[in-house]
């Protein structure tokens, strides 16, 4: 069985969708030469009309995709940096997202916004290291953060096929993850459906994106003391609340680990929704970036601002002790 | 719709004129909530431009958008119902004045964000052509919009990729209260020429001149030419928005307003018709609008239970906000 | 004692700061004629250099303010529409907010972003009716939502004097609130400090912005059944957690009412932080807009999407019954 | 710094050249994390432009920003310490290559967002002049940036308000891998002329020519002229970013690279010096850089405890992310 990397899973998803549906096309900066190493080989196979390099005009090309979608195409945009989503926030949230309701259902805007390398890239510093998925979850745009190669494949395929705009964050910390998967086993993964990577009885750990792997490592480390259920939402909006409620109703304890700013982030949303619906035996905990975090350049500082395994370990110990 | 029949042009300007006057009455009577940005005085532009288009061509408008929607062929009754927030409106009452859209007749919508529609229409036209149509598109915008970066980015994309979009700048001298000379360094045609586009200045008060200039541009575009810009010089006869009817803002000298109003596109085009013919058209328009008002006011309001209908084209159901 | 309106409180705060500090200046669209009725009279008193009308170039003028702040000025920008903050999200969050850390403390960016008329303006529909304060709280930009005229004055003054960027949302639903206040009693209100409008013992209701008035009305209505404490955070980021924890520790019950989208909004943050720190006797509840809400145009639908008093009442009854 | 002393120009280009070569070595050895965008080949522009400025003038740079920072007078040792993430760096190790700033010598910073600095410097220069200085400013950017709407908006503001900013476009033929001809409709000077600015094209490989042209523009601006643009034609000798040293991207024909490299600003300027003089300067530069490398590598890394130092200029302390 070939070892599939997360990056190549994205490539394969794009290739499969381009092959399956003539209406799909890619748009982005330096995607022909595959500077981000995601679109490799695609221009050769599908031609420059369908793998379109664009000038540095993020606002215009994002709305160009909206217009193309209104006219029946299914564009996928690759963004080189997570903060470019700030630059096109208006175009996504105020236009693409709002068109169907504002027109009274006259149209759909099936655009996929793909961000390979979100979060810290080690040494890319303040303006290139954000993880702004909670912003889109707040706006109500479908928001996906796959943790594994198979999920990266399956969720990207579903994003392209979705009739609404979808933002897919591929965390820098997950891009090099590899997995033994049979190509035939790669299938669409439904949006809005969570995945339990490891069942457990004592505490539910909700981990987002690359942190799923940290959560699994910590769960393994604790295996003989605490039975940890590792819950990967995969889609942050719409969130699979029913599965989470079921999990926490069983374990009675909740820890969330999320590599984004704390205030009004998805970790807070998880806690809020769970406590509205399920009684807990111990106060919930979350491990996040600090409030208002800006990633400093120096490597040790950059690491210090991201959630660490030791913090997750401590949080789990806390909820076990408190409950 | 591609002919310059003087009667047809007159009918359109007269329809828009009377539509706006009726709409203002309905704002006063409280039937249209939130007010409108009247198109009064600028009717010749929408009429002249849209007469140069085919049914399968697409247009995108502005906050001052009624004229574009009507001139492209939307039903005045359903348009008025939309302004009154009725379920029978073009957008099922979800859009209102600033979002009125009728994709069936090629109107991608009015747009409440200045400068936003240029890139959207560029994408839509590009997509239509890829899908086999030889459609062209029109992006309407004001003199204020040429200072928005997103529009200038769209100029570049359209010019580079030779997407046949006619950028129609309705220069009415002001962006709200900001005089064009205080806002636009250089010139409006110069901004298009900077991207290699042909730019033409036209008297926006003369529907036939507008038509002639646009028809020529559309013919060039249809024959494979790139995008072009037309600056239509015009004057806004009424308030920026009907809120100004209650709050007087002091920014246009009365003599200037009088001078501006003296060149009336409805009068100019009307004078080209035999009296009897003009009277007949007026009666026809009156009958259409009387029926439209009746239709709008007799139509039901949408049910608040469906407040979030059409939010997601994919069928996703949003979590409600209740406690 | 004169009745001070919320709007005039903002005007007075701007006037006082312009008079107090030469480095303060205003920037915005149509602020000379005071189209938003906030900057009335200021150009006459302080001149057009300090009350600067700008072209429609939100991104550039937002960063212009950043540059001016870096050079020692204290700009205040008025935005005509809440969604214009989407357009300049990059400029605020990725630049103004990040400069101090990224430069290692070489500079400060004291800019105030003022949004008079956030939330629903009744009939302004999908693109003009957002309440995006949670986005800034997530990013870590100081975010203020005053509920009363005196707080509007005092918080705006403090925002202008703050050495960091501050976004101040003046909800449309609060702009017409009036209050009996002595001019001499108008003082700066510290950022990050909450206000208890009405003490109570049974339940803490956290209300944001104009909803404070709804919460007070509901509290009054319930006065003989439930003792409701009405807690107004005033600043959403940094939040006055200690005061809230103190309140909830006393009442044991929490309801949040917030006119913004539910997922990853400030209401969820309030619940998450409280349950991390305080045991509750009943599950907390929140009343918000739905997930991903887009305000439909028709008035009844627009209202249906915003939190209502009946919903708040129901939520209070729930937490009383559950606990 | 306003003289065109050939030795001084040579010293600057040589310093930048050797600084970049040393920095690339430090990337290879792992001392500079995250890599750099080498300025190799473009040294003549920073050197020529900054030689035309006074100490109190301000500049803002790009992601390819080392040359601008050094040419404006920052200490190479503290600059290198910054790239190595040391506490002694210009930004205390918080900024790194893409954010290196030294406000003390008028460098508002490199900037990781293409096109962002134009509006910032416009605001900074406007403010300095209001505060009494007669400073001018320079915004450096690449050929890719002229497609960013935010930069074009800044052109308009600077031109309208006659803010003396010299917009220096370093046209190195590519935006990452995108050839300028495939990205820029029209021409680069034409884009400035569209806003009424004077635009001059200069050979960016000749430091003296760059200096002469800029000095003349700066003199016009200082005498009250408005902003101007200079397009400096240049060639990037090395990779877009050092990541390309590991991953070959195929976009520049070898003959083109060879031709580009044949016009070397260091050689061109060096040839204008007597051999002995040149050798002496080289030795001096070598000594400076050897000391800089020693200083950088001997400097301490910042303490992770202070990871969020400088986040808020107002003294606000962020809530941490721990569980
Ligand atoms: C991006 C953006 N900025 C500001 C506004 C607020 N606004 C609405 S219309 C308008 C003036 C537009 O002027 P112009 O483009 O000349 O069109 P006109 O109103 O004259 O038809 C402004 C400032 C907006 N809707 N969108
Ligand atoms: C707004 C924005 N878009 C994209 C990027 C990613 N990016 C960084 S440098 C670069 C190319 C810039 O080209 P150019 O302006 O010509 O400068 P050069 O690299 O050639 O010096 C790109 C696309 C970015 N940093 N910011
Ligand atoms: Mg106008
Ligand atoms: Mg370049």
TrEMBL record, chains A, C:
The keyword Transit peptide does not apply. The keyword Oxidoreductase applies. Residues 4-177 form the Transketolase-like pyrimidine-binding domain. Keywords: Oxidoreductase, Thiamine pyrophosphate. One of its GO terms (molecular function) is magnesium ion binding. InterPro entries: THDP-binding (IPR029061), Transketo_C/PFOR_II (IPR009014), Transketolase-like_Pyr-bd (IPR005475), Transketolase_C (IPR033248). Pfam families: Transket_pyr, Transketolase_C. Transmembrane segments: none annotated. Coiled coil: none annotated. SMART domains: Transket_pyr (SM00861). Its cofactor is thiamine diphosphate. This is Alpha-ketoacid dehydrogenase subunit beta. SUPFAM superfamilies: Thiamin diphosphate-binding fold (THDP-binding), TK C-terminal domain-like.
UniProtKB/TrEMBL annotation, chains B, D:
Keywords: Oxidoreductase, Pyruvate, Thiamine pyrophosphate. Its cofactor is thiamine diphosphate. The keyword Transcription does not apply. The keyword Oxidoreductase applies. Residues 12-296 form the Dehydrogenase E1 component domain. It comes from the Bacteria. Gene3D superfamilies: 3.40.50.970. GO terms for molecular function: magnesium ion binding; pyruvate dehydrogenase (acetyl-transferring) activity. It holds the Pfam family E1_dh. GO terms for biological process: pyruvate decarboxylation to acetyl-CoA. CDD domains: TPP_E1_PDC_ADC_BCADC (cd02000). This is Pyruvate dehydrogenase. It comes from Micromonospora deserti.
């Amino acid at each position: 069985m070939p070892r599939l990397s997360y990056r190549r899973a994205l490539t394969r998803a794009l290739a499969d969708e381009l092959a399956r549906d003539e209406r799909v096309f890619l748009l982005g900066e330096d995607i022909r030469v595959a500077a981000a190493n995601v679109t490799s080989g695609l221009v050769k196979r599908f031609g420059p009309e369908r793998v379109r390099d664009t000038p540095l005009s993020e606002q215009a090309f994002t709305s160009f995709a909206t217009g193309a979608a209104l006219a029946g195409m299914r564009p996928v945009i690759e963004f080189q940096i997570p903060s470019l989503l700030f630059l096109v926030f208006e175009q996504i949230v105020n236009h693409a997202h709002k068109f169907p309701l504002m027109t009274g259902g006259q149209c759909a805007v099936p655009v996929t916004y793909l961000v390979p390398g979100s979060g810290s890239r080690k040494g890319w510093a303040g303006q290139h290291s954000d993880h702004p998925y909670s912003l889109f979850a707040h706006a109500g745009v479908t928001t996906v953060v796959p943790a594994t190669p198979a999920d990266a494949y399956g969720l990207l395929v579903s994003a392209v096929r979705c009739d609404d705009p979808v933002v897919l964050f591929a965390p820098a910390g997950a891009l090099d993850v590899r997995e033994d998967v049979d190509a035939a086993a790669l299938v669409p993964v439904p949006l809005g459906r969570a995945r339990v990577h490891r069942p457990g009885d004592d505490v539910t750990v909700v981990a987002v994106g690359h942190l799923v792997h940290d959560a699994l490592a910590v769960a393994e480390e604790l295996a003989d003391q605490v039975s940890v259920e590792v819950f990967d939402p995969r889609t942050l909006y719409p969130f699979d609340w029913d599965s989470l409620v079921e999990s926490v109703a069983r374990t009675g304890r909740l820890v969330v680990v999320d590599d984004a700013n704390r205030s009004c982030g998805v970790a807070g949303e998880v806690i809020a929704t769970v406590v509205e619906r399920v009684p807990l035996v111990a106060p919930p905990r979350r491990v996040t970036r600090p409030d208002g975090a800006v990633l400093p350049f120096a490597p040790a500082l950059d690491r210090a601002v991201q959630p660490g395994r030791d913090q997750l370990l401590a949080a789990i110990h806390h909820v076990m002790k408190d409950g | 719709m591609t002919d310059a029949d003087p009667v047809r042009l007159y009918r359109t300007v007269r329809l828009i004129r009377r539509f706006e006057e009726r709409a203002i009455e309905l704002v006063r009577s409280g039937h249209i909530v939130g007010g409108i940005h009247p198109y009064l005085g600028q009717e010749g532009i929408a009429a002249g431009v849209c007469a140069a288009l085919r049914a399968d061509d697409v247009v995108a408008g502005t906050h001052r958008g009624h004229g574009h929607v009507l001139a492209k062929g939307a039903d005045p009754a359903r348009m008025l119902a939309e302004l009154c927030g009725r379920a029978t409106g073009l957008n099922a009452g979800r859009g209102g004045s600033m979002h009125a859209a009728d994709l069936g007749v090629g109107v991608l919508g009015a747009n409440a964000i200045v400068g936003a529609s240029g890139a959207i229409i560029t994408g839509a036209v590009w997509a239509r052509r890829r899908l086999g149509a030889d459609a062209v598109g029109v992006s309407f915008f004001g003199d204020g919009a040429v200072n928005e970066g997103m529009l200038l980015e769209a100029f570049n994309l359209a010019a580079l990729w030779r997407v046949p979009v006619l950028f129609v700048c309705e220069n009415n001298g002001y962006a709200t209260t900001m005089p064009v000379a205080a806002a636009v360094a250089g010139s409006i045609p110069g901004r298009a020429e900077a991207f290699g586009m042909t730019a033409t200045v036209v008297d926006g008060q003369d529907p036939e001149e507008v038509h002639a200039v646009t028809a020529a541009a559309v013919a060039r575009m249809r024959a494979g030419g790139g995008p072009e810009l037309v600056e239509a010089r015009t004057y806004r006869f009424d308030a920026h928005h009907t809120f100004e009817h209650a709050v007087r803002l002091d920014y246009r000298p009365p003599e200037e307003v009088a001078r501006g109003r003296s060149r009336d596109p409805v009068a100019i085009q009307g004078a080209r018709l035999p009296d009897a013919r003009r009277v007949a058209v007026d009666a026809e328009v009156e009958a259409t609008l009387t029926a439209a008002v009746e239709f709008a006011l007799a139509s039901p309001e949408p049910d608040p239970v469906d407040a979030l209908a059409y939010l997601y084209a994919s069928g996703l159901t949003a979590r409600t906000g209740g406690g």
